[in-house]
Amino acid sequence: MLNKESKKREKVIEQSTEGEILPRARGKESDTILKTRVAKVFHPKVMGIIWIFILWEIASLITPENLFPNPYVVFRAVIFGVIMKEGFFFHVGMTVLRIIIGFGISFSIGMSMGVLMGAKRFWEDFFTDYVIIGLTIPSLAWAVIGVLWIGLKPLTPVFATAMIVFPYVAINFWEGVKDVEKDLVDMGRAFDVRKRRIIRHIYIPSIMPFTFAAARIGFSISWKIVIVGEVFGASNGIGYMIYYWYHMFSMRLVLAWLLFFTVVMLFVEYFIFKMLERRFLAWRPQAIL
């Protein structure tokens, strides 16, 4: 009898404790979900974008509308004055094509030059002055030189982009090759590892972070230079359209074209570069301060 009564008491206690624990667990789970949603809403990137539009709205209130239109006006201009207009895809396509060609040429030249400079002292001494000269000449000067040499042709922005961007790419690869750990290379050679495997498993992983840094910097500079080059030496493209609406005294459409292209470049950064970086640099630990 005593055993039966004790077992009944134990069951009652278990049921009561389960009844208390389950609501607590559900409460904690709901709190966690709520905190996650709040963290997403108040993410630093989201807050940064919100502050941009708040400051933009404040600036539009204290300045004339023809000089600084508010965000709503500019967004309407993006849709109805940019995207819905005839020739939109042609101008955007020409600009993107010039960016790809100019960036590809500058990246190829800079990568080849940087790898040679990092690998051999002779090429380092040979190319150093070229890189320094390329860094010191102003970007606007190359755009003007391109117009004088080539004229108002589609090749002018490509030329300016290639001449301006390649030194930045070369410096990143130069430092990347020099940053490869010599002990790992010597160890591979000591164990008679083939040169091809040393390059694949030591050099390429070590250079990969510098490769993404060079690509990100080079691409960001490329689209700026292409826009400037189209302003000075092209008859189509986004830069040309910005220059056209500048002459028409329409700040609304100037900002609309700039805003649209900024969104496109942010898309490239977050959905191409970031994804490739997570794919190829998954092995690299993230430093937490």
Could you explain the architecture of this structure?
Helix 7 (155-178) packs antiparallel against helix 9 (195-233). The relative contact order is 0.10. The protein is globular, with a radius of gyration of 29 Å. The mean pLDDT is 81. The protein folds into two domains: 15-62; 71-280, MetI-like fold (Orthogonal Bundle). The chain has helices at residues 2-41, 44-62, 71-83, 88-119, 121-136, 139-150, 155-178, 182-190, 195-233, 238-247, 251-280. The N and C termini lie far apart (64 Å). By secondary structure, it is an all-alpha fold.
Quick synopsis:
The chain has 289 residues and is mainly α. It has 11 helices and no strands. It has 2 domains: 15-62; 71-280, MetI-like fold (Orthogonal Bundle).
Give me the secondary-structure topology.
Elements: H1 2-41, H2 44-62, H3 71-83, H4 88-119, H5 121-136, H6 139-150, H7 155-178, H8 182-190, H9 195-233, H10 238-247, H11 251-280
Largest sheet: none
Low-confidence stretches: none
Our measurement of the CA-to-CA distance between the termini, rounded to an integer number of angstroms, reads 64 Å
CATH class of the largest domain: Mainly Alpha
The CATH topology name of the largest domain reads MetI-like fold
Strand content is under 5%
Q: Whole-number radius of gyration?
A: 29 Å
From the coordinates shown, what is the CATH architecture of the largest domain? Orthogonal Bundle
Number of helical runs?
Answer: 11
CATH superfamily of the largest domain: MetI-like
What pattern of helices and strands is seen along the backbone? HHHHHHHHHHH
Helix/strand class: mainly alpha
Give helix % range: over 70%
**Mean of pLDDT:** 81
Q: Note the overall shape.
A: globular
What is the total tally of β strands?
Answer: 0
Number of domains: 2
